[in-house]
Amino acid sequence: MANQETELSRVLVGAAISAGFAFLFLTKSGKHLLDSAEPWLDEVIRDMQRLRGTAAKVRDAVDEGRRSFEAVSRLGSFGNGQDQPWASDAKH
Q: What is the pLDDT of residue 65?
């Protein structure tokens, strides 16, 4: 029973997609819709490319921050003075 429902849903989805393509490419109103959607799609693509560039810059900044943090943490701990040679003199 579940297999028949899966097959039926696949057939219905395929029919809906086919009907959508037929509308877009075979009717005047569908062609008009495609023509009016093209500038919008171009703008969406430009926005996605800008977003990708921004994400790359953020990723580079995070990587640089991580490298800086690791470099500073290798130099010693932050202010507790245990690893500093002058800290033992100050406690006496």
A: 94
